[in-house]
Known about the structure:
Radius of gyration: 16 Å
Distance between the termini: 11 Å
Strand content: under 5%
Order of helices and strands: HHHHHHHHH
Helix content: 55-70%
Number of helices: 9
Structural class: mainly alpha
Amino acid sequence: MTKEEFARRLENACDAIIHVEAELTEIDSKFGDADHGLTMTKVAKAIAQAVEESDRGIQSMLDDAAMAVMTLNGGSAVPLWNTWLDGMQEEAPEGDEIDVTGLKTIFAKALEELDDMSGAKVGDKTMMDAVIPASAAIAAYSGESEAELFTLAAQAAEEGAENSKNFVSKFGRAKSYGAQTIGMPDAGAVSMARFFHGLAQA
């Protein structure tokens, strides 16, 4: 996969988040601060602009995206997304091509860094309910098709976000609502699932 192809997928991922801003706001208004939609639109636009303006290799592109997110003012999603993207760039190739092995490497490192920061697991009703299954799908993939890898990751992220409806919130403001949060998906998991859905669109 060329840098241009990867960039296009990242831009599609950002568009996918921007298109569901209202849905994310609605979800977050139930038990959160009702700012997740706005925050994630800021994050998505920052990533998309950094990707579009990047004139160097894949590692620099991802580094620029992480830096763009880091400078934003926003909710808890901002440092989490910065950490995830920064983890990606740490293992990304400096050149203009990345293969399945490279993708598996960067997403594994991204999860490792995010896990160190977040500490949340599947079942805690956070973005990790989508990130962890998607990362596991990527790690388990044994084929050679980048498109298939992203498709499987998107399916896993979507299922994880949907499954978050069944959990009690254990982090953030929503934690205080306890069992009332059952039945509503986590906004962070939904936005991450949308991002992976966009990555699967060439």
